[in-house]
Amino acid sequence: METFLIDLESSEFTGFGNLSYKVLNHLRNVIHHTRSSQTATELIELVVKEGKKILLLQSNEHIIQNIILRVLKIIREECVKILGHSEDLANKETLHKMLTSNDFQANFDLPSKELKVRVIEMMKEYKTEIEDSLQSIAAQGIEHIHADELILTIGYTESVEHFLTKTGPKRNFRVVVAEGSPSYGGHNLAKSLIEAGIEATVINDSAIFAVMSRVNKVILGTSAMFANGGLKATIGSHLVALAAKEHSVPLYVLASIHQLSPEYYSDITGKDISFNKLSSPEGVLGFHISGSAKYTDLEICNPQYDYVPPDLVTLFITNTGGVAPLNLYQLLGDQYLHGDYDLLKK
Amino acid sequence: MMGDENKPKKSKSELKAERRAKQEAERAAKAAKRVDAGKKKSLPSVPANIQADNPQVVRKVTKQLEKQMVVRHADEQKKVNMVVHLHQYDRTSSITRSIGFGKQAIHPAIVQVGLKYSQGFITGSNARCIALVDALCHLIKDIKTPKDKMFKFHLESKLKQSINYVEQCRPKSISMGNAIKFLRSKLYNLPSDITEDESKDVLISALRMFVKENIELAGIAISKSVITKIRSGDNILTFGSSSVVSRLLCDAYNSGIDFTVTIVDARPKLCGVDMLEKLVHHGVKCTYLHITAISHVMPRITKVICGAHGIFSNGYVMGTVGLASVCMMANFANVPVIICCEVYKFSEHVQTDSFVKNELGDPRDVLTPHNVQHKKAVLPEMWDKDCLKALNITYDVTPPKYISMVVTELGQFPSLSVPAVLRMRSKISAY
Fold it and tell me: Does A14 lie at the interface with B, CB-CB under 8 angstroms?
């Protein structure tokens, strides 16, 4: 267990879902090692304690918080199911509940042998859902790309790679890939596209505005989605999104449901620096130039993420289907319980 | 019978005169028709450098160049669909291998400047113009007119040959084009009663004056004008490298204003590093980043000051690729954009998008990341696959709605006032 926390502190998590799987596994182990008869409240307390420990080490990744909130909801739902009621009653915030005004108070302090087992099972199901999300998103590709289309994308995201390579054989389209300096993820994406036989044109990020007038659609991947429809995507995405808005080009964002975070970010002035992750300036201006004595006062910016406001996004394509940015709040209710947001913050 | 006697008898000569008059009238009518037809045919000719996809035009140009002993620079074959009509020079082919040494050969100063352009040793609109003018002065000084020709025509043909060669090394910039137009008009207006040496002196001093007035003095005027707009505490954003902007920022620093500069740089040329060096050497406090991170810093920027490659008659600004993105971002964040451009870079052409006329660089420059020692480049080895294409445009065109103000040596005005300035200028000087 301790190795996981050490890993979390030191390593970088690349690859879709790797961080999610690790967090899920860790929580599952923690729950597994408790006594066989548990009350829901005890489990919740345990998960919250572990969650706070993890978040202390890696507060930047929103996915960790999402996973923990989802597990909390799973615990409550399972408890309610064991008591013999429908799992909807665990969620107090639905409109239906308010109308039918059923004063149901679940007793979360009843110990039950089944609870632990069922919670672990549901967590396994959740993990499968995350694993399959890439496939589900890619399967919708054929519905959104028409023939002879020119699609623009920036940087490298696995969801975009899967989406385009799975639709490539079924439909004839071309892709323009902006390289996304300084990490140049776009080059890796172009390589995958060419190996799949799709025509890929690589451009510099500076040419995005010029090329945008000829593009039919922009497809982006993202690191996290916020409850208001905003994105935390790879650096350069805001530039792409604005250029798309200026030229009236639709912007589609591919994201799976577990990336949906209950946070709201409306501060696009960037003063809230905790949102972003600033990397080593080596990627931008090499040490062989910036290391000389005259550059001691020089500030080099190398942020990893960009905030994209919700009014620039046309459509979200998630593993459960297409969603307009203003309707994301409905999915929030399916994933997390409102009361849990504060538990992790304290 | 009776009618014949009543007709006045015309003499033979009168009948001949009548016939001649009729013939003259017919000839005049035919000549007039020919002139009219000739007038209709003289439409403006489309330049050949935007017809690279028309094999007839390419063949014609090759023949013309051969007559002048200039080798046509071959095109790299893999072009992106939308720019097939533009030339994309193949960097591996040489055009100077077959340059000879005879009387008809290109002057060595011109050969040198052409090579410097194509290898990228001289970059920047002003620098290229100054280098070209320098080389032309050498050419004019060394030229020796043969006895059976006039100086004017001999120089004109040599000039044509040299300019064609320079065009094959690297396509002309707007500044270079206007300098050549100036020289041609001066040559055309040379009085015919002066000696060859005097003509040479006239031309060389005119060229030197052109550079002094339009580049050096204009730069100083622009700098004085923009400094009044810079306040203490400003955070100024600039894009890429511009000689005008670096001069004015250094002058502003010298006059004691406390400001910081953010330099936005873009691939593939990464010119911002030169700008950074100049400013840091001077003592200005700087921030440096790539264009992808621009939305991260834009909230703390107070103004954007950039240079331009040229401005078209419809108010669109042509600058290094990426300028349009920077101006759009600034517009979104309500930050004023100031473009500093000398008047000699104004063009009479109009253009609204970046593809109808542009310069294509080497596509392989796009495929290699600049920090190669960290990341291995994955794409260059796949270049021979048909599916992979790369687009490397050198310039892009910014719409006037993103630009707050254009500052020139003649004053400050909005981007759409360019044709008014051009008209006024043509009334003042022989332009």
Answer: no
